[in-house]
Amino acid sequence: LNLFELGCINATEWAIYQDWHSFLVEQFGHRVELQGIIYLRSSPQKCMERLRRRGRHEENEVKLDYLDKLHVQHERWLVEKSTEIHFDKLKKVPVLLLDAGVEFQSDPEVQEQFITKVKNFLDAL
What we know:
Protein name: Deoxyguanosine kinase
Number of strands: 2
Pfam families: dNK (PF01712)
CATH superfamily of the largest domain: P-loop containing nucleotide triphosphate hydrolases
Shape: globular
Helix content: 40-55%
Strand order of the largest sheet: 1-2
Keywords: Kinase, Transferase
GO molecular function, one term: deoxyguanosine kinase activity
Low-confidence stretches: none
CATH class of the largest domain: Alpha Beta
Distance between the termini: 29 Å
Number of domains: 2
Order of helices and strands: HEHHHEH
Radius of gyration: 17 Å
Structural class: mainly alpha
InterPro entries: Deoxyribonucleoside_kinase (IPR050566), DNK_dom (IPR031314), P-loop_NTPase (IPR027417)
């Protein structure tokens, strides 16, 4: 499900989103193609905890149910590769999965592991 299918945006917003995407691809072509995706995987509960801790006004209305659906979508797309993708090149984009559920903010060792994994991933692209 996408944002439109989830009812998070209306038909007009969805049409604008699609038009904008098409415009960017037409105008910039290869310059906007994804080379790789870094998926910061975390549970919806951990994401909600971090949202609340940040305390951003614009995130006050985010519900756990939405984060659950978003998580399932990302898992299907980036891990299981079971989401229908309409762009062939996007199906082949490499994905680096990082466990963002761990507390890395105050752990230099985990930070270093993440940095090494990202560097290796980028070097391999």
